[in-house]
């Protein structure tokens, strides 16, 4: 909602800057989206002028050269294009240096050869209306050179409030003023409807109203006027509407919009002479029933939508938009002002079904009180008589009457202290509640709080009353305290394993994404997983939201590859992404889906940028992914190894391996298959995925520490000739034969020539209780060589 401060200050004017007002509102629960200026700026350059002469421009048929008295010793020469400008007029003038509504700063200029020292202004050039065809003609009694801001509302700051659904009362200037009053302590003027009595609701001669669905229309009021004169609204009214985001139309329509913005209660004006049969019926729409609305659109109503009809059929969509057939026009002389209360959920459903949102529907859908209709009628009564020359006819309609009796809620001091953790003085509590319009009475253990009608749907229990006190009197004074350390609030072991694994990747520059659990069936084809076995492993949803979300992801690779392509396509040179989430596979026997928490990583692009040492940057490959997977497993203290495997079709044959620990499969590591990389517009890449549920079962919760410094190790290298077998198999043989004294085995070189493969291993021997002798190491080394020889592996040379 746009809140013009010049309008707000009519009811509550805190001596604060607009930014300070916005800050105070935000700190008390009313968010301010932004502050902007409506109208002109540099106000000292806007003055009243007297047109002395208006001569035809010698070089332009549609321009006139005017001399204008602007209060200086010499008149100003101004070129004007308005057809109505004439000598003797009192006009609004912008001098050089003035800032126009669009931000343009006015300068001296030449127009078709004639100097121009300003502008004679039309209504829209001051943002106080939409008229542009002619200049504004002011009262002759004004003095030349008088500041224009003294006679016209040409500028105001505007707060854009972001009102929450539970506070429709703040969708009104007076409601916002009440909130500013409570938040700042500035005095609040009486409500504009106070003191106005509509008299008894005895009906209106010649008009009949029938509300057939009172459950959806709790209250329907109508007041009739005659002798109405349709004309332009005064500048102050137009300016307030435009500053609030409304377009002025004519005085009657402008009054309806003005009353809605001031009170929060939407208003609809019927041309009484166009109400067929003088009868209005409020009812549910029939299926497929059509209404032509004010915007000349034919709209098909949903079955539960509410209509207002006359003898010739539907004339309005209740609570949303009026109909074209009964709208106020330039010929209108009799007006029926309708103000009603509609069921909020019904208005919201109808608005969504029609795809039609209006200022009225935005208010009704949040829930307005029946009492607001009478308050708005009281404000409209004064405006209709003063601005439209109307005479109110005797009587009025009030179908349904006021809402339920105001609720009284007991506010206990002990409960207030329990929820807030601090004591709020009784006087401060009363002051806050009364400033918001609540009634307050003393009680033995606290206060009896009477809820005003405009907060009926929001404040329904003791905690709600405490919230009002907290946001206005206690929030800024709440002490900073640590939460209690309650048992059972710690992470589970599985959660700790996940966090630790994710931290390892983040610490190495891998960025996290959050992939979607749903996937499209073509994902399997793109990953080269299509086939009967693959389809049997997929969990298919019975009631998917769309075809593209009809299966549960069987792997994390889909979302990771999508994110990699998106980032590379938007300028990233390299990507390193991980996703940590649930993976779903169909059950083989019990029909239930099998789930596990997976950790997946995709790497694409060069590892490092080119440099003078290496013009060609190394791309991410198998060993990059293996190193990252190893870092995760080593941090979790899970002993692991990799073995070649072509089990995963989306990985490059010969450049893929399975990761295992104690004979259990943990996942895979490898380079992307070229065809898969091409599907995602990647130039290669590497990936790995691990089953964190299995890893959590294998990872030790309590780490064991060993002394590594007391007795020095013995380090030796071993060069072997092997057939074309995985190095992991050779390392396994060495470990098995080395026993407890062989502390570490690493492969540090591999050489192949003429079909012969050489492996170089680094061995490290150590004992926890002594320094090993050469003889002890030699015996272990001989056992290792003997075990290798049995498997056809011999020492080189």
UniProtKB/TrEMBL annotation:
<keyword id="KW-0436">Ligase</keyword>
<dbReference type="InterPro" id="IPR005147">
    <property type="entry name" value="tRNA_synthase_B5-dom"/>
</dbReference>
<keyword id="KW-0963">Cytoplasm</keyword>
<dbReference type="InterPro" id="IPR005146">
    <property type="entry name" value="B3/B4_tRNA-bd"/>
</dbReference>
<dbReference type="InterPro" id="IPR020825">
    <property type="entry name" value="Phe-tRNA_synthase-like_B3/B4"/>
</dbReference>
<dbReference type="GO" id="GO:0009328">
    <property type="term" value="C:phenylalanine-tRNA ligase complex"/>
</dbReference>
<dbReference type="Pfam" id="PF03484">
    <property type="entry name" value="B5"/>
</dbReference>
<feature type="domain" description="FDX-ACB">
    <location>
        <begin position="709"/>
        <end position="796"/>
    </location>
</feature>
<feature type="domain" description="B5">
    <location>
        <begin position="404"/>
        <end position="480"/>
    </location>
</feature>
<dbReference type="Pfam" id="PF03483">
    <property type="entry name" value="B3_4"/>
</dbReference>
<dbReference type="InterPro" id="IPR004532">
    <property type="entry name" value="Phe-tRNA-ligase_IIc_bsu_bact"/>
</dbReference>
<dbReference type="GO" id="GO:0006432">
    <property type="term" value="P:phenylalanyl-tRNA aminoacylation"/>
</dbReference>
<dbReference type="InterPro" id="IPR041616">
    <property type="entry name" value="PheRS_beta_core"/>
</dbReference>
<feature type="binding site">
    <location>
        <position position="458"/>
    </location>
    <ligand>
        <name>Mg(2+)</name>
    </ligand>
</feature>
<dbReference type="InterPro" id="IPR045864">
    <property type="entry name" value="aa-tRNA-synth_II/BPL/LPL"/>
</dbReference>
<comment type="similarity">
    <text>Belongs to the phenylalanyl-tRNA synthetase beta subunit family. Type 1 subfamily.</text>
</comment>
<keyword id="KW-0648">Protein biosynthesis</keyword>
<dbReference type="InterPro" id="IPR045060">
    <property type="entry name" value="Phe-tRNA-ligase_IIc_bsu"/>
</dbReference>
<protein>
    <recommendedName>
        <fullName>Phenylalanine--tRNA ligase beta subunit</fullName>
        <ecNumber>6.1.1.20</ecNumber>
    </recommendedName>
</protein>
<dbReference type="InterPro" id="IPR036690">
    <property type="entry name" value="Fdx_antiC-bd_sf"/>
</dbReference>
<dbReference type="GO" id="GO:0005524">
    <property type="term" value="F:ATP binding"/>
</dbReference>
<dbReference type="Pfam" id="PF01588">
    <property type="entry name" value="tRNA_bind"/>
</dbReference>
<dbReference type="InterPro" id="IPR012340">
    <property type="entry name" value="NA-bd_OB-fold"/>
</dbReference>
<keyword id="KW-0694">RNA-binding</keyword>
<keyword id="KW-0479">Metal-binding</keyword>
<dbReference type="Pfam" id="PF03147">
    <property type="entry name" value="FDX-ACB"/>
</dbReference>
<dbReference type="InterPro" id="IPR002547">
    <property type="entry name" value="tRNA-bd_dom"/>
</dbReference>
<dbReference type="InterPro" id="IPR009061">
    <property type="entry name" value="DNA-bd_dom_put_sf"/>
</dbReference>
<feature type="binding site">
    <location>
        <position position="464"/>
    </location>
    <ligand>
        <name>Mg(2+)</name>
    </ligand>
</feature>
<feature type="domain" description="TRNA-binding">
    <location>
        <begin position="40"/>
        <end position="149"/>
    </location>
</feature>
<keyword id="KW-0067">ATP-binding</keyword>
<dbReference type="GO" id="GO:0004826">
    <property type="term" value="F:phenylalanine-tRNA ligase activity"/>
</dbReference>
<dbReference type="InterPro" id="IPR033714">
    <property type="entry name" value="tRNA_bind_bactPheRS"/>
</dbReference>
<dbReference type="InterPro" id="IPR005121">
    <property type="entry name" value="Fdx_antiC-bd"/>
</dbReference>
<keyword id="KW-0460">Magnesium</keyword>
<comment type="subunit">
    <text>Tetramer of two alpha and two beta subunits.</text>
</comment>
<keyword id="KW-0030">Aminoacyl-tRNA synthetase</keyword>
<feature type="binding site">
    <location>
        <position position="467"/>
    </location>
    <ligand>
        <name>Mg(2+)</name>
    </ligand>
</feature>
<feature type="binding site">
    <location>
        <position position="468"/>
    </location>
    <ligand>
        <name>Mg(2+)</name>
    </ligand>
</feature>
<dbReference type="GO" id="GO:0000049">
    <property type="term" value="F:tRNA binding"/>
</dbReference>
<dbReference type="GO" id="GO:0000287">
    <property type="term" value="F:magnesium ion binding"/>
</dbReference>
<keyword id="KW-0547">Nucleotide-binding</keyword>
